[in-house]
Amino acid sequence: MMGADLISRARAGDAEAFRALSEPHRRELQVHCYRMLGSFHDAEDALQDTMLSAWRGLGGYDGRASIRTWLYRIATNRCLSTLRSAGRRPAKAWDIPGVEPPEPTRLGEVVWLEPFPDVLLEDAMHVPLGPEARYEQTESISLAFVTALQLLPPRQIAVLILRDVLGFHANEVAEMLDTTVESVKSALKRARAGVQSRRADQEPPPAADSPAENALVTSFVQAWETADIDALVALLTDDVFMSMPPLPFEYQGREVVRQFCATLFGAGRRFDLIPTRANGQPAFGAYLRAPNGTRHGTGLYVLTLNRDHITAMTRFENDTLQPFGLPRSLPGR
């Protein structure tokens, strides 16, 4: 009865009633938009548009689905519009002065990828999942999974997330997307095959903040801050993968990653790392030491781990620091 009363008041223009209806779902909708779009900033925009559309369109809510499902329908279609537009973040040219990188293994496609702060996941990882959910919540927010999603066609992204991550029934998804159950099943089959073809079989990562993870992270920080190439390379798997969106350069394999890091450190660049977490993974704000002692934020590093090695390193631009509560610079020591 309380829900019906809130809906009635919200329809009459009561902003507080609408907030009471929508706010419990805000964080999980933000994560949903992020999974679909792969960009923290695009997800923020999509979430704001979703809430505005819901506020304006509440008169059209017929009560057949829950408010949560109705909001997911709006958010999903808002994200689909973004995915189909031509306005995604373009690739960026190499711009690190005094550093000439080695030839990349390949050029990446998902140059708009951004990290998602773990602190914002806390209220979104315990949402009630439908009976058809197939992914662990931690895996479904990992950089590898989000990247794999971005390589699918837009409709397949939506169907895979709604069905396999959130566990909505096929008929619910069909209604959200204004399509048929048969179309949903077909898109899901193709999406699963697309994601599976890009998922690497590897040992699971150590548990967050476990002794194993802490030991590996501590060794990485020590090696990176002291520019100890040999110690750093010893932490990497043979097929380690390195990327740096929005730069399209991607490096695969221990030797070429060694070359890249040696070039970086060989140019005299030295860093301090401030720990945080992104996408359920260890992450660090990276601060370049200036001659005057000031340390300027240059980006955010996110590590992907297996049981006892680093399998991937992703470096993001310094405009990703702010959502993590990290400053743009640090005072001199």
Automatic annotation (TrEMBL):
For this entry, list what GO says about its biological process.
DNA-templated transcription initiation
Positions of the RNA polymerase sigma-70 region domain: 23-89
Task: Domain (SnoaL-like): give its ranges.
Answer: 217-287
Query: One GO molecular function term?
Result: sigma factor activity
Which InterPro entries does this one have? NTF2-like_dom_sf, RNA_pol_sigma-70-like, RNA_pol_sigma-70_dom, RNA_pol_sigma-G_actinobac, RNA_pol_sigma70_r2, RNA_pol_sigma70_r4_t2, RNA_pol_sigma_r2, RNA_pol_sigma_r3/r4-like
The RNA polymerase sigma factor 70 region 4 type domain extends over: 144-193
Q: Which family does it belong to?
A: Belongs to the sigma-70 factor family. ECF subfamily.
Q: Which PANTHER family match?
A: ECF RNA POLYMERASE SIGMA FACTOR SIGG (PTHR43133:SF65), RNA POLYMERASE ECF-TYPE SIGMA FACTO (PTHR43133)
Subunit structure and binding partners: Interacts transiently with the RNA polymerase catalytic core formed by RpoA, RpoB, RpoC and RpoZ (2 alpha, 1 beta, 1 beta' and 1 omega subunit) to form the RNA polymerase holoenzyme that can initiate transcription.
Can you name this protein?
Answer: Sigma-70 family RNA polymerase sigma factor
Q: Which organism is it from?
A: Kribbella jiaozuonensis
